[in-house]
What does this fold into?
Amino acid sequence: MQLLNEREKKILDLLIDDPHIGVTQMSMLLDVSPGTVRSDFDGLADKGYLIRTRGGALPAFHPAILVRQKTLPDIKAAIAKAAAAFIHDGDSIMIEAGTTTALIGRYLLGKSHVRVVTDSTLLIPYARSNPSARFTFVGGIFHPEAESMTGSMAVQHLEQFHVKTAFIGTDGFSLENGLTTHMMEATEVVRTMHRRSERTVLLADSGKWGRAGFARIIPLEEIDSLVIDDGLPGAAKNAIRELGIELLIV
It folds into this structure.
């Protein structure tokens, strides 16, 4: 989303709210010509954000993903960039599906011979554009609202690997509930990544602190490092450090 100009972002916002908006109505809403709208539609389709239809376009991604991608984009990018500093040439890693974790792919450029195992289809563009990294995408049941693969096939595939670092996300985390998610199907995938890695790094924005999702993943004390923005309360920072967790604030 950060690669789009303001009008392109507005087009996506409008199509998320109403996928049936055509060229004529879009041109009126944006106060531009229909030809400009068609050009923007074509450009967004070339970038993979839209699917062109007769007289209009549809978002290529599930609306939930697009909404999450445009939420706190600068903070998510900073967290992903800081997390990527854990990765060195020749490392093997796992990356869990998520709009923050997927951004790690952007910061693998310049690193050599990194092997990535992931359940996230959001990483496919980075696999295409980075010949120095080797990506393995696990099979399973595809969830468009999360751009992820889950299920027993995904878990069995992950069990075949052992990596240095697993990078995971969460819908909410706390001392009491640990890491949680709203998507029950993701729990075993994340647990397997955690189990099959030497180190587990959690990426989360501070707004997720104190929240509890539907399903518990792992206790907070089982992660090794937390990469987060500076909105985390001081008491929470102290409590997390007391658990022996490395805290990296961006």
Q: What stands out?
A: The chain has two domains: 6-60, 69-249. The radius of gyration is 19 Å.
